[in-house]
Amino acid sequence: MIVNHQGEILALKVTAGNVDDREPVHELVKELTGSLYGDKGYLSQELAEDLAQTDITFITKKRRNMKAHALAGGIR
């Protein structure tokens, strides 16, 4: 589910429990630009780079065991 800063639903997709949460992201953000915030479950350098190609800044917290120099984009 993707919501805006007012909590309004912009995009929604229900998937089976065995589907990676990151899988439907590209479809959900097809018509969007700006910043996308996700929890650590969405952490993926490849996803961040793909979203950057479509003018979306992906922001999420890094995992404790990640080194800062290995990060790019909005991963913190």
Automatic annotation (TrEMBL):
Pfam families in alphabetical order: DDE_Tnp_1_3 (PF13612)
Domain Transposase DDE: 1-71
InterPro entries from the UniProt entry: Tnp_DDE_dom (IPR025668)
Domain of life: Bacteria
This protein's UniProt keywords: Plasmid
Name recorded for this polypeptide: Transposase
Taxonomic lineage from the root: Bacteria, Pseudomonadati, Pseudomonadota, Gammaproteobacteria, Enterobacterales
